[in-house]
Specification:
The complex is a heterodimer of chains A (416) and B (532).
Chain A lengths: L2 H4 E4 L2 H4 L2 H5 L8 E5 L20 H19 L4 E4 L11 H17 L3 E4 L14 H10 L4 E4 L5 E5 L2 E6 L6 H9 L6 E7 L1 E2 L14 E2 L10 E5 L5 E4 L2 E3 L17 E5 L4 E5 L6 E8 L5 H15 L7 E9 L1 H5 L7 H6 L2 E8 L17 H12 L5 H27 L1
Parallel strand pairs in A: 1-6, 2-3, 3-4, 4-5, 7-8, 8-11, 9-10, 11-13, 16-17, 17-18
Antiparallel strand pairs in A: 2-14, 6-7, 12-13, 14-15
Helix pairs in contact in A: 4-5, 5-6, 11-12
Chain B lengths: L24 E6 L9 E6 L4 E14 L12 H4 L6 E13 L5 E2 L10 E3 L9 H4 L3 E8 L2 E10 L8 E5 L5 H15 L3 E6 L29 E5 L3 H6 L3 E2 L2 E2 L8 H4 L4 H9 L5 H10 L15 H6 L5 H17 L4 E2 L5 H9 L3 E5 L5 H20 L12 E5 L14 H9 L5 E7 L7 H4 L4 E5 L4 H10 L8 H5 L5 E5 L7 E5 L2 H10 L15
Parallel strand pairs in B: 9-17, 9-18, 10-15, 10-16, 11-12, 11-15, 13-14, 16-17
Antiparallel strand pairs in B: 1-4, 2-3, 2-6, 3-4, 4-5, 7-8, 7-20, 18-19, 19-20
């Protein structure tokens, strides 16, 4: 597809009613957008099943929360909804993830709100023979005027009134972002960049996922009026004009301190405001000082803590920190005694800081499973290989591991 | 008329070692022999079967006549003939010797008496390849000529131990730096940071003598080893595929102001008091506070912690600091923004062992120092956080500081960042490349930290003396040679190369043409389709 084909020009329905446009007079459009990202439709975890539907409860709550969020966004009447990547959790989404996305698109279309989306690393096809999930949505009748998607490593330019959205999806190679950026023709009107990747300013907070690329400060150019970013799950500003909206949901326990939701952006003033959208809460129930406590007493303390939190923990993801617990005490904890408390929640994590080990155990397990890359790197470091060998083994091993994980994941998804 | 007696070229008294010290050689050559200061000569010791090398350090007319005034007597030509008895006495300093095993050693012994002294050939210097490093800068000079096959290259591993480049205007300092950069781009052994306020390094410009010069971008084969962060126009940036330079408020620390302005004692104290407070808080506090009515007790702004730190300072002091912060913001608005810094990208490029050029043409000296100070501090901070790494793993960065006397002078501690880098940087893999025309104005403690000296002609005796006293190798006996260096020539003293080397620095334009024609290292993945 050439660049001309990538260029789409249309008018948002709301703006079309502005008197200035009807008379042909030139006046700036006061465009307001909602920026969301990382909805990860299809993510499932915790082995909890909804008794009515038989579906993984976590997965079901994500669908329900997403549609509720869309309803809330529609009530805010934005001129466009911008999604900065990872709409789906997998390259080959589950059927229910598709139907949820289609439901959302129907509701947005009915409300006359166009949706602008880029493919994130989770929904980026890494092989030539894998079709993008967005092709399904585009062929579902949304190509014309309601859904604008950039995927398959191609930059796309979308004009809505006097605002140009420059869409750079997750790229196959890190340098792809710069190549796409350098091709951009800036509009004299408002320019918005929508892209997916990790701002280099946050590089210490890598997610270590497949096809995670860094976005350098040059791409975060001040020539854009606003930069809508996805990939990083906390709501954070990374340049004067660049924001991560954060994910809608807490996707792992490492995100417990994050702000979730979306951003309401007034492109005429540059004002950015965080908006709270429906999501499953993640609650830090606090820290229990386990010094001198027996296993039974620790369990009792946990139950008291959960009781004190009351109804807020219902279907919530909760965490209790057991500070200074001995390993043998930890092993002796009566897990059955916690079953009842756990049944009220979506999940309860006992975060352990053992007294035997002075280093805090930072096992921020992702719900998707073990971080094999980080684990492999730690293993290699412990082996104390000769200088040069370690770097080579890490580099080669990581590359192979990444491709294997990705193939495995794609195979797994395909079988779902 | 002088009574000339033909010289016997086979005269055994000439070209034979007659010196009597380990560290000083002497021999006689015919009075009409053509020798130059800096000539490197070979001394073949047939007894020990080793070959010594020595460099000519002085040439003296000598004779065998007992009358010390023979050459000033009237009609001296009637009594004395200029022949074998009149000669040139050559003083030479030993460089070292090569044994039968081909290894080069320091001159800890003396050649046998009357060892033969000869002009060496290029093949005689094959041993020098063992001692040369990876960063090529020129070819070895011997007297008037050069040994084209003997390339002088610095060792990458010693760069963390700081380097000094000393040259007066017009001696080829910019050319040297560009050659050095090109070799760093090729070798990719460490990261090199250069701030260029004149815009001459990127795409070339005019030399101090007015000639058109080329820039680092013209070294196309080494382009992968170069990252340029620029404030130039977007079209220029795109044309050459450069990065945009941004610094953000949190990169700034209040003591950076000390580099940019003269401060009274109270102003200095106020600024230093704010050292640990994030730059965004300091900037926004000073931007939004009216100091005519400022009172800590009633302050209701967003930064009470800043207000508390400043409670003991007068409104006039704070107003001056405010004016300077606003001036700094205004002066650097081209690249300074509230959030979104290029520093992580700069540090990443340095850690990928690239040459990182900060291209800020047309900006003031204050802006240059501001940028350099911030980036140096951030590099130090980054490396100090990595002290757990072993020496092999530690990343190495060299920071070039032009006109270094501005920030490493012997005055008060207005340049703490640079002083820290000079004193402690080597522990963390941070080296400084101190470039100056006036080494005597550099703090002696900083000079003592330098382990590589590139001396490109210094006419001032004070400058030469201070260099000679600071260098790790004895440069005092090269004083005459240093005085007589021509543009583009240098005496280099560095660790790894066992003696000071006289060097003809490559001409950058010719050097990159040569480099562009050399086969480049190709990635094993090049040309492969990585998608499947």
């Amino acid at each position: 597809m050439n660049r001309l084909e990538n260029r789409v020009v249309c008018r948002s329905r709301q703006a079309a009613y502005l008197p200035g446009l009807l008379t042909g007079a030139s006046r700036p459009i006061q465009m307001k957008i909602i920026h969301i990202a990382d909805t990860h439709l299809g993510l499932s975890a915790f082995n909890r099943v909804d008794p009515e539907t038989g579906m993984n409860l976590r997965e079901q709550l994500i669908y329900e929360n997403f549609l509720s969020s869309i309803d809330q966004i529609i009530r805010m009447r934005p001129d466009a909804l911008v999604h900065a990547g990872d709409l789906f959790h997998q390259v080959k989404p589950k059927t229910r993830a598709y139907t949820t996305a289609l439901d959302a698109l129907c509701r947005l279309q009915d409300a006359g709100i166009p949706m602008i989306v880029v493919a994130g690393n989770h929904s980026m096809a890494k092989t030539r023979y894998t079709a993008s999930p967005f092709e399904v949505l585009e062929r579902g009748g949304y190509r014309a005027g309601d859904l604008y998607v950039a995927h398959h490593n191609r930059y796309r330019r979308v004009e809505l009134d006097d605002t140009v959205f420059h869409l750079i999806p997750n790229m196959l190679r890190p340098e792809g972002y710069r190549t796409a950026f350098d091709e951009i023709e800036f509009s004299p009107g408002t320019n918005v960049l929508v892209t997916h990747g990790l701002a280099s300013i946050l590089k210490d907070r890598r997610l270590h996922t497949v096809a995670e690329h860094e976005l350098d400060a040059t791409v975060m150019s001040d020539r854009f009026d606003y930069i809508a970013l996805g990939h990083f799950h906390d709501q954070v500003q990374v340049a004067d004009n660049a924001w991560y909206s954060g994910s809608l949901e807490y996707c792992n326990y490492g995100e417990i301190g994050d702000t979730k939701g979306g951003l309401a952006v007034d492109l005429s003033t540059g004002a950015v405001e965080g908006i709270d959208l429906p999501h499953t809460p993640m609650i830090d129930l606090g820290r229990i000082n386990c010094d001198g406590l027996s296993a039974r007493e620790v369990v009792s303390e946990i139950l008291t803590t959960v009781d004190d939190a009351g109804r807020t923990t219902f279907q919530a993801i909760c965490q209790v920190t057991l500070d200074g617990i001995r390993r043998e005490t930890q092993r002796a904890l009566d897990q059955k005694a916690l079953l009842n408390a756990r049944s009220q929640m979506l999940d309860l994590k006992l975060r352990v800081i053992t007294v035997d080990d002075t280093t805090q155990i930072l096992r921020e397990d992702t719900l998707a499973g073990l971080d094999y890359i980080a684990e492999f790197e730690r293993f290699v470091e412990r082996e104390h290989l000769a200088p040069g060998d370690e770097e080579y083994v890490k580099k080669t091993g990581t590359r192979i591991l990444r491709s294997v994980i990705e193939r495995h994941r794609e195979g797994e998804n395909a079988s779902e | 008329m002088t009574n000339l007696i033909d010289i016997d070229r086979g005269d055994a008294s000439k070209y034979r070692l007659i010196g009597d010290r380990v560290l000083s050689y002497r021999f006689a050559v015919p009075h009409d022999a053509e020798l130059y200061l800096g000539d490197v000569l070979k001394i073949t010791d047939a007894v020990k079967r080793v070959t010594f090398f020595a460099k000519v350090s002085d040439l003296i007319h000598g004779c065998n006549f007992s009358d010390p005034r023979w050459d000033t007597r009237p009609h001296t030509e009637h009594f004395y003939g200029i022949g074998e008895d009149v000669f040139i006495l050559v003083e030479a300093i030993p460089l070292g010797f090569v044994g039968e095993d081909g290894l080069f050693r320091k001159p800890r012994t003396i050649p046998a008496k009357f060892s033969r002294v000869e002009q060496p050939e290029a093949g005689d210097f094959a041993f020098l390849r063992q001692v040369m490093g990876e960063i090529e800068i020129g070819v070895m000079k011997t007297g008037q000529g050069v040994l084209r096959d003997v390339r002088v290259s610095l060792h990458a591993t010693v760069m963390r131990q700081h380097m000094g480049v000393f040259a007066t205007t017009g001696m080829g300092k910019s050319n040297f730096m560009k050659v050095f950069c090109a070799s760093c781009m090729r070798a990719r052994e460490f990261g090199l940071l250069i701030v260029d306020p004149h815009g001459e390094y990127v795409a070339g410009g005019r030399s101090s003598s007015g000639e058109a010069t080329r820039g680092l971008l013209h070294y196309q084969a080494g382009r992968g080893g170069l990252s340029v962060f620029t404030t130039q126009s977007d079209s220029f940036r795109r044309k050459y595929m450069l990065d945009q330079l941004y610094l953000d408020y949190d990169d700034f620390r209040a003591p950076d102001l000390l580099l940019l302005y003269e401060h009274s004692q109270p102003q200095r104290e106020a600024v230093e008091m704010l050292e640990d407070i994030p730059g965004s808080a300091v900037i926004e506090f000073f931007r939004d506070t009216d100091f005519t009515t400022f009172d800590v007790a009633t302050y209701a702004g967003r930064y009470p912690e800043v207000a508390r730190e400043l409670k003991n300072f007068t409104a006039s002091t704070l107003s001056v600091v405010q004016r300077r912060i606003l001036g700094m913001l205004n002066r650097n608005k081209k690249f300074l923004r509230k959030k979104g810094s290029s520093i992580p990208d700069i540090i990443r490029a340095l850690h990928e062992n690239k040459v990182v050029l900060i291209d800020i043409p047309g900006m003031s000296e204050q802006s240059e120092l501001f940028v350099l100070s911030i980036i140096t501090r951030m590099i130090m901070k980054n490396h100090q956080g990595e002290d757990a790494r072993s020496a092999e793993e530690q990343r190495q960065v060299l920071i070039a500081i032009e006109e270094a006397q501005r920030v490493l002078g012997s005055g008060l501690g207005s340049t703490r960042t640079f002083r820290e880098a000079a004193m402690e940087g080597r522990k963390f893999g941070v080296g400084l490349c101190v470039i100056t025309q006036q080494p005597k104005n550099i703090d002696a403690r900083v000079l003592a930290q330098l382990n590589t000296f590139v001396v490109m002609g210094l006419s001032d005796r004070g400058d030469r003396d201070i260099i000679a006293s600071s260098a790790k190798q004895d440069l005092s006996r090269l004083d005459t040679e240093i005085q007589t260096l021509e543009a583009g020539e240098a005496v280099i003293s560095t660790l790894g190369i066992p003696f000071p080397v006289s060097t003809r620095i490559h001409l950058f334009e010719e050097y990159i043409q040569d480099l562009n024609n050399r086969p480049a290292m190709r990635s094993i993945e090049e040309g492969l389709d990585t998608s499947f």
